[in-house]
Design goal:
2 domains; mainly alpha; homodimer; Arc Repressor Mutant, subunit A; DNA-binding; Tetracycline Repressor, domain 2; globular
DNA sequence: GTCTATAAAGGGATAGAC
DNA sequence: GTCTATCCCTTTATAGAC
């Protein structure tokens, strides 16, 4: 890393080797961290700035408002999930194999980008409780649409698995919800251990997926 | 009911047939109602007062602060869950039968006190990450303890089911987390339909429990 | 026991300096 | 591109009237 956030902030100018896109990224990551730790309402723009070692001026330069900042974090979270799961969903194998792979990829996202993913969860509440003004209704609708597309990957894979005989659920839509519920909850209780490696996370993800997909009852 | 909240508020005195404990209950119920409708962060003390047809003076007379009010609501939410599941956990039947009954009871709580339960699970995290001062540390610890006791009901039932051969999971603790994750998520996506009855909810709860406990793979 | 009025603090957003 | 200073509104909490 060429320079810390503090260095950049106190210098007042962006170093030549830091692209404008990356400066914006830094603000976005700081916001995700804050939203996860304190929730949306209790996160102030000052908190986000403080996490950057900067002041509000920098945050407002990159994002018009607090809702705007939240929406961008939400969108990024969705992009991460989609890029992780879509290739698996479109790949080869039985329905069960694809679902298994998607579930593992989803779980790893919950572990490795949990600040973004927790913020994503809050977005649902914001939508349902009307926590932001009606002027943002349209933006929220669009983000909810993204979520629906992602969920559809799972619904369709369930349907494919039923068709090829490798999956058995009474209702693909309900199955998608309970599966994603179990996996999304990982972002609530999981926290990385010191010295943890990618291998450890993959192993844990596999154990989680095996537990959930296999069910809890003893096999007759 | 002898008098409405509005009547009491405008009279300025408590009727002789209303015990002080019940007056406090009314405030608590109003707070719970607000937390259910708007979530914790978006609820102001004025909102609670408004729901009572009163002003803040009344709320602050019974509860020191907003965190105090939150803690009391949290405790009530835990009581609801505990009273629903503890009898089933202590009842008869195989481990699988008890777990099944507990899961159904838990799911019904998620549906019927939806936002209430969401405030419960999400709200504690916000406090744990240190938004409030150390003066609430003790109260917070106690509430976390209640949650642990509740989760233990499920852990122990998993262990019992493994012992009697009706359940099969690699790790009871992990199984508890994925199961409660799937069920807690119901509070995120569920919303009651117009004209919905208790019977509809029970049927849906049973379908959810069957999907989760049975697993998603086709049985060989 | 509840109300009105108000103090004190926090936080969103903007303007203009550098 | 970031900072400082500031406006204005909301919210928590308290003081004292009734």
């Amino acid at each position: 890393m060429p320079a810390s956030a503090q260095d950049i902030a106190s210098s007042g100018i962006a170093p030549p080797d830091t692209a404008p896109q990356d400066r914006r990224e830094e603000v976005l990551a700081a916001a995700a961290e804050c939203f996860m730790r304190r929730g949306y309402e209790q996160t102030s723009m000052d908190h986000v700035a403080e996490a950057l070692g900067a002041t509000k001026g920098r945050v407002y330069h990159h994002f018009r408002s607090k809702p705007e900042l939240f929406f961008q974090v939400y969108r990024r979270a969705m992009d991460i999930l989609m890029q992780a799961c879509e290739p698996v969903a479109a790949g080869g194998g039985t329905g069960e194999q694809r679902l298994s792979g998607m579930a593992k990829a989803h779980t790893l996202c919950m572990m490795e980008t949990r600040t973004f993913q927790r913020t994503l969860t809050m977005g649902v509440d914001l939508y349902r409780f009307g926590g932001t003004g009606p002027e943002h209704k349209a933006a929220l609708e669009e983000l909810m649409g993204l979520r629906f597309v992602y969920e559809d990957l799972f619904r369709h894979t369930f349907a494919a698995g039923i068709a090829d005989g490798t999956l058995a659920v009474p209702d693909p839509s309900l199955a998608m919800r309970t599966l994603l519920g179990a996996l999304n909850w990982v972002a609530v209780w999981y926290s990385p251990r010191p010295g943890e490696t990618r291998q450890h996370r993959e192993r844990l993800a596999e154990e989680i997926v095996e537990t959930v997909l296999g069910g809890y009852r003893a096999k007759a």
